[in-house]
């Protein structure tokens, strides 16, 4: 770099601070600004301003991701977790599952997996951990898309639609499964509920665009499913209901006893963790039979992790804007910065700014991106997949031209801007997920919480499920890398010898885990 270039670069940074006052926030100067207040000043150095914004995006998203900052965020989160373990009706929700599977549970069960966009019904056979090659077998499965029409169905019709899909699956079986004895069924539910027994729970707000909670809040979910099935002469009994994160944990724990957490990162995010009951306030358990507590040293806990992180995880001005425009501002801070539903929207907001500056797409916002949430996270993944550095072999050029309906192909400079923004957004997302998971891992080993912390246990396996963690290029490995470094660098290493955290990819974990939950329900 020549001396002239050096001074130019300093001037550009100073200009960026004037244009984007929130840059100063991270220098500890002025903490409050919103995108709406930003005055757009075009610099004379037009060629440089897209690059300046690119550098700024990179800097702001990567700023929190140093080991020192990540460890300090993790400690702060652990304090939030501890507080919510004492009192909260919304998160750190203990289930009724207090034993982990031994891997010896056997049987055939009907399993349901109600996700944000897919409903699966399966007949699952558990054969035992040592059965090779398949300890768990999906004997039959049907998968139905939950589109906008289904999402908006009122409860009676939604549960009848579910019962219809269960009926379809059962009718495909040659040997009729319906007899006088009710068929045992397990349900993985990707929404919060207030669990009242292993097989029941009160409906809560569902989010993710669903309507069927509106006339059922407080009603028992198990009864709603059973009634809908009875309406179609299906003799089933709901034996277990688990959150999708708990189902993921159970399915992997069936195979590997080192598993003590289940992480979901797809449209939404959540973690189920196996935690000591003694670390939770009395009110967390509602009214339970005293006999339950006798056997319950630890319990699978639905953390509803997405709700944590406010005022701990630094936000950029694009996060502030997304939050401000959200139906439920501040409701799920971690989710808004890490999941499939939001990564695309963050990129879209950055694009809006670059277009308004007149620096991208000749200052015209592409038609398909005008609506909020119109940029699919898949596009970020495609940009990151493409490692080419020139126009001739760049897949991104055609991907972007098509997805954004551009009349002329994007320039290499524009592609490079978009790619850097995608990389920055996903880099921070993997760091924040690592921070939130590390804080839970440390909580499990915290002597205050868990006096009998498994000091000898050097390996923690975290079962992973969901499109972002399983499919987004490089995401899981980067997240695991962060976790490894954090666990080694953190002060806990002084107490525990070289801990190892493994992110274990799973396959059909929610549906399999629901079957494991039924098998466990047989255990008194
Ligand atoms: C949302 C739900 C949570 C679920 C998660 C992953 O955050 O609140 O219950 O586990 O999405 O599907």
Automatic annotation (TrEMBL):
GO MF annotations in UniProt: ATP binding; D-glucose binding; fructokinase activity; glucokinase activity; mannokinase activity
Pfam families per UniProt: Hexokinase_1 (PF00349), Hexokinase_2 (PF03727)
Domain Hexokinase N-terminal: residue ranges: 68-254
Organism: Capronia coronata CBS 617.96
Domain of life: Eukaryota
Protein name: Phosphotransferase
Keyword presence, Nucleotide-binding: yes
Annotated keywords: ATP-binding, Glycolysis, Kinase, Nucleotide-binding, Transferase
